[in-house]
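Internal tracking record. Fields below are filled automatically when a chain is submitted to the structure queue. Please do not edit lines marked as system-generated. If the sequence contains nonstandard residues, flag them in the REMARKS field before resubmitting.
Queue: standard
Priority: normal
Entity type: single polypeptide chain
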Amino acid sequence: MNKEEIEKIAHLARLGVSEQERDAYAEDLSRILGLVQQMNAVVTDGVEPMTHPAEAALRWRADAVTLEADRDLLLALAPQARHGLYLVPKVID
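SYSTEM-GENERATED OUTPUT FOLLOWS
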């Protein structure tokens, strides 16, 4: 990249870039664009996309009922219940 391209990019990004910074930015952006060109040159035909770079399998638990809830027992534990519903204090007038 040359200084004019850096100035244009800095203007578009609304950045103030000094003369010393222009040289450093030109070198850095040139290296970044070179890396992008290298990555674009890699043939990826037939490579399936990954969701994560570490292919870790999730440990799922079995989806099985372990304990059935006894509704009458749970309602008996509530401070107040009526007609199969929990009664709670009114919070909005």
